[in-house]
């Protein structure tokens, strides 16, 4: 029997093997190009382009790696890592499996949240002396929920050439499989792990919806926190909001479970999740009462009530934490007292 609120999408390609079929040497061999080069257009050039940057030729390259299936590692990505002078890894032990599978022997060093800022001056010096440095994360596209952003910013400021080798990304893959509106979407990485901070972050997003935000929301989440997170989503955004939980994408036990967020919260309260997880929440319905203007409600309440009482009244009416509503009510009250402030 099929559960209409969920679906399972098993993917049986071995994790350690790529397809035995020869890879196409260009996009045009794999599928019809959406934008075919015009031989008469001098601006069209299929020759690999090296971005302009530091005169000594240093290059920082952000390289995407598989999110589960090694067959998703592109030939260009492998060549870039093999030709680099140094590969910066989120965890060198994790990356060793991928590099060994492709016979890549380039020297690796760790780059993570705890050492990135301290390492930047020395890395920029290497780049300014013409070194080619590649940045990879444990899985997926660098900088998204992973280290590298501060180094990339420093390289831009120093005028160093920087490029990227695009590839797998868990958030985008989950979005395409979710059945939720693909655009606009908002990816927020990981929510705070502590319950109070997590609910506060979600409350701010709900308040943004009150002011007009309408987008599919995307997060990564740890398996042991998934049930609590979904319960918070149901409480703050409403149990009927459409949602999806994508698990182990591109791996053997890939699964995408879809349904109202309240239903998903109940499922995962009884069924412990495993693996890498992406959570998606659809946008509010057009007739959702939460679309009412928060500021209008607060201004009306502030006309006759104190800030404290107005916040309590409105928070109860629109299902937002009182602390979030109180902060906005206080701001509106200050604007009323000082309309030129």
TrEMBL record:
It is found in: Cytoplasm. One of its GO terms (molecular function) is rRNA (cytosine-2'-O-)-methyltransferase activity. Its EC number is 2.1.1.198. Pfam families: RsmI_C, TP_methylase. CDD domains: RsmI. Residues 290-332 form the RsmI HTH domain. It catalyses: cytidine(1402) in 16S rRNA + S-adenosyl-L-methionine = 2'-O-methylcytidine(1402) in 16S rRNA + S-adenosyl-L-homocysteine + H(+). PROSITE patterns: RSMI (PS01296). Keywords: Cytoplasm, Methyltransferase, rRNA processing, S-adenosyl-L-methionine, Transferase. SUPFAM superfamilies: Tetrapyrrole methylase. Its main location: cytoplasm. GO terms for cellular component: cytoplasm. HAMAP family: 16SrRNA_methyltr_I. Catalyzes the 2'-O-methylation of the ribose of cytidine 1402 (C1402) in 16S rRNA. This is Ribosomal RNA small subunit methyltransferase I. It comes from Gluconacetobacter sacchari. The lineage of its organism: Bacteria, Pseudomonadati, Pseudomonadota, Alphaproteobacteria, Acetobacterales. The gene is rsmI.
